[in-house]
């Protein structure tokens, strides 16, 4: 069993939001990922067959988000088309922060993801790619929304399926029931 560190006063890391593939929009400006419909495969996940294919997702920071802390959007992936699937599985992302109040930030421009867990070569190998968005830049607040464009890059020779997208962040408060009270 993992040891938990932190407290509600100092903050604990948690999955703030998890978006299943069915909640992702497979359309993107550079070619779209496709929804996998093969029941024998990764049914309902998004398939990225080529470099440049993209999908979009929207996250909303929950009420338990600890103000003043960074957030770490990330994606879970799997190589899904045979033993010849080799090379680096890489993705880049473009972010736009939309605060609950105020003016939306401009898109960041494409940022390479940090491949925390590079999948091994071959079929059915899983991995995780992550980005960090700094609170010092955005001043995140409860119920802020983040648009994320996920775009395949890298040199992998085969197809990569997106299993989920989620955001790690620190939680440290009970939260507010209404956005108007913030």
Quick recap of the structure?
The protein has 182 residues and is mainly β. The chain has one helix at 135-138; strands at residues 12-19, 34-35, 46-48, 54-60, 71-79, 89-98, 111-112, 114-117, 126-130, 145-154, 160-171.
Assembly of the depicted chains: single chain
Straight-line N-to-C gap: 36 Å
CATH architecture: Sandwich
According to DSSP, the number of beta strands is: 11
Largest sheet report: 7 strands, antiparallel
CATH homologous superfamily heading? Galactose-binding domain-like
What is the CATH third-level topology name? Jelly Rolls
Question: What is the approximate shape?
Answer: elongated
Protein architecture, described:
- This protein is mainly beta.
- The protein has one domain (12-173): Galactose-binding domain-like (Jelly Rolls, Sandwich), CATH 2.60.120.260.
- The chain is built from one helix and eleven strands, in the order βββββββββαββ.
- Strands 1, 2, 3, 5, 8, 9 and 11 form a seven-stranded antiparallel sheet that branches. Strands 4-10-6-7 form a four-stranded antiparallel sheet, with no helix packed on it.
- A hairpin with an 8-residue loop joins strand 8 and strand 9.
- The longest helix is centred in the last third of the chain and has 4 residues, at 135-138.
- The protein is elongated and about 45 Å long.
- The relative contact order is 0.32.
- Residues 1-8 have low confidence and may be disordered.
């Amino acid at each position: 069993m993992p040891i938990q560190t932190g407290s509600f006063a100092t903050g604990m890391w948690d999955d703030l939001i998890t978006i299943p593939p069915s909640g992702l929009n497979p359309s993107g400006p550079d070619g779209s990922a496709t929804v996998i419909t093969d029941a024998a495969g990764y049914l309902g996940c998004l398939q990225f067959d080529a470099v440049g294919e993209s999908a979009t997702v929207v996250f909303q920071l929950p009420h338990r988000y600890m103000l003043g802390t960074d957030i770490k959007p990330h994606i879970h992936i799997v190589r899904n088309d045979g033993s010849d699937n080799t090379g680096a599985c890489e993705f880049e992302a473009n972010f736009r922060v939309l605060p609950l109040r105020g003016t939306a930030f401009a898109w960041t421009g494409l940022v390479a993801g940090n491949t925390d867990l590079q999948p091994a070569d071959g079929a059915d190998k899983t991995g995780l790619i992550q980005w960090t968005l700094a609170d010092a830049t955005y001043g995140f607040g409860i119920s802020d929304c983040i648009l994320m464009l996920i775009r395949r890059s890298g040199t992998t020779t085969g197809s990569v399926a997106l299993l989920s997208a989620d955001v790690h962040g620190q939680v440290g408060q009970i939260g507010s029931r209404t956005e108007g009270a913030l």
